[in-house]
Amino acid sequence: MDLEQKAKENIAILELSLQKQKCYNAVASRAYYAVFQRIKHCLTSNEFDYILFLKKIEKVKERSYSHGTIKRALIDYMLTTGTSLEKLQPLNYFDFLYNKRINADYKENKMTEKDIKLCLKNAQNIIRLIDKL
Fold first, then answer.
1. Which domains occur in the chain, in start order?
2. What radius of gyration do the chain's Cα atoms show?
3. Does 95 have pLDDT greater than 90?
4. What is the DSSP string of 65-119?
């Protein structure tokens, strides 16, 4: 199963949980990883040179496809395809998804249905943006 299929599976679980299971903490994590996997699939399938990118941003010791650099790498790639800065706006929600994942996985506060609906909406918006490439 490739990363694009895993991303789709994570979105499906997100939607199902909203309807039935209501496992909001687990779903917040899946929303983030659906986007993370979709970004990684986009970059790898388009032969994005991550090592060169890490040199460019002066983070040569950083691991390729790390949580801290992957959004910036996607922005870098999308700008080379001619995508305008204004069309990159949905990527601002990547940090929201990351923070919700951290809260869901490591903090004692519980995600709510409202949180998860926002996670789903933001994840879908980012994935739609990537799918337009």
1. 3-131 (1.20.120.330)
2. 15
3. yes
4. T-TTTHHHHHHHHHHHTT--GGGGGGGGHHHHHHHHHHHHHHSSSPP-HHHHHHH
Q: What distances in angstroms separate CA 14 from CA 18, 75, 129, one per listed residue?
A: 6, 25, 19
Q: Are the beta carbons of 12 and 22 closer than 8 angstroms?
A: no
d(CA 4, CA 125): 15
Distance CA 62, CA 121 (A): 30
The model's pTM is 0.90
CA–CA separation, 51 and 63 (whole Å):
9
Nearest to 97 by CA among 23, 38, 5, 33: 33
Dump pLDDT digits (tens) for 1-36: 888 898 888 788 777 777 777 788 888 999 999 999
